[in-house]
Write a structure and sequence with these properties.
Blueprint lengths: L10 E5 L9 H18 L3 E4 L13 H10 L5 E8 L5 H14 L4 E6 L6 H8 L9 H12 L20 E5 L2 H10 L3 E3 L8 H11 L11 E9 L3 H20 L18 H10 L3 E4 L1 H15 L3 E5 L5 H15 L3
Parallel strand pairs: 1-2, 1-9, 2-3, 3-4, 4-5, 5-6, 6-7, 7-8, 7-9
Helix pairs in contact: 1-11, 3-5, 6-7, 8-9, 10-11
Length: 336
Amino acid sequence: MKKKFLSDIPFSVLELATVTEGSNPAQTFAKSLDLAQHVEKFGYKRFWLSEHHNMISVASSATSVLIGFIASGTSTMRIGSGGIMLPNHSPLAVAEQFGTLESLYPGRIDLGLGRAPGTDQMTAMALRGDFFNNANEFPQNVLKLQTYFSKENSVSNVRAIPGEGLDIPIWILGSSTDSAQLAAALGLPYAFASHFAPAQFFTAIELYRKHFRPSKYLDKPKVMACVNVIAADTDKEANKLATSLFQMFMGIVTGHRKLLQPPVDSMEGIWTDYEKEMLNQMLSLSFIGSRETIKKDFLDFANQTQIDEIMIISNIYDQQAKIHSYELFSEIMKSE
């Protein structure tokens, strides 16, 4: 096993445009841009936005629109989707949208694709209408999307203008082994959502690497993991900040979602033993603590998994504490 040096691993941000208690989407978008401008200076490579629907605490539903907003206020980072839930859209519409983004911000746009709805089943039905079973056609729709981006499609009766002939990197996103098999078969880079679904992470990346087929897009496997990071000057402060994340995930477990809540001194009396155990499983690949604590834990993780890139998400209530968390993590990644 090759020893990993943190300074060799590109690091990036996943942003949900999380709406905090007392705030609204308009204010949240301004905070997202502020965060992007800071992390660009800290040396982050990518800033991806996720597609979610019908969630009061997540405002990134019109993902491609938000990508354009963030790209317009930054200059060097790659801005992309983590991801576009392809079954919610026609491949042609996605090709046109990202072709437009790439034309406006050349060399800076990534397209991460997922097969989940990014919401509940009723909302998915409202989004997809008669195409509710589109998730079953995810592999074919990825291929259609690649066709629309290809120069060879110029002779087709249906073309993506803009989009055709543009070099827009496609990533397959996933939280299960199904997505790993698809990414391997198509020779595409693979990003795993271990920040909320870590159970199959190790199995999935092993399967992906084992069955990877080189393609014109990629000659060897490329794995990116997304994990939760809550960094602060002390372990005690980080553990308090993390209580906002815990409360957010409690909403997922119980079905009683709220806006992102302020941190509390203790979760005792807020969660039950069952809820605590569920959250410990969902958040098992989370790094919470001081710079020294996170550096040690993350170096072990990087060497165990041999990841090629890391993407982090920090659901922190206070904007300045959130920015500081990303700054501390960048210092960790540059430290060797």
